[in-house]
Design brief:
Blueprint (H helix, E strand, L loop, with lengths): L1 E6 L8 E5 L5 H7 L19 E4 L12 H6 L11 E3 L12 E4 L6
Parallel strand pairs: 1-5
Antiparallel strand pairs: 1-2, 3-4, 3-5
The structure holds FE2/S2 (inorganic) cluster.
Length: 109
């Protein structure tokens, strides 16, 4: 299992911690756990940008580089793109990402 920490946008709120299966997307793990804050309206088809997360700077380099489609879709997030912005449906969880920390945007719409 891979442990993921998702910090709500409001830093006064406690982080959500979830256990995910390898090879699952971060989006799917969050949806399966009924985690608030990730809508994933398109179900991972890379057409909605409602699965936006901001990856903690300590983890940014651990992730594979984003593809051009993800890069383009990040122009459509509700919260302005940040340096660590990624679409969680494009993050495949691996053992190397055990302990991954991301922050959820204030809103996905
Ligand atoms: S779930 Fe729609 S772009 Fe990620």
């Amino acid at each position: 299992m891979i442990t993921i920490h998702l910090q709500p946008h409001d830093p006064r709120q406690a982080a959500h911690t979830l256990q995910a299966q390898p090879d699952q997307s971060l989006m799917q793990a969050a949806v399966d756990a009924n985690l608030p804050g990730i809508q994933a309206d398109c179900g991972g088809l890379l057409t909605c940008a409602t699965c936006h997360v901001v990856v903690h700077e300590d983890w940014e380099k651990q992730l594979p580089p984003m593809g051009s489609d993800e890069d383009g879709m990040l122009a459509f997030t509700a919260q302005t793109r940040a340096p660590g912005s990624r679409l969680s449906c494009q993050i495949t969880l691996t053992a190397e990402l055990d302990g991954l920390q991301v922050t959820l945007p204030a809103s996905q719409y």
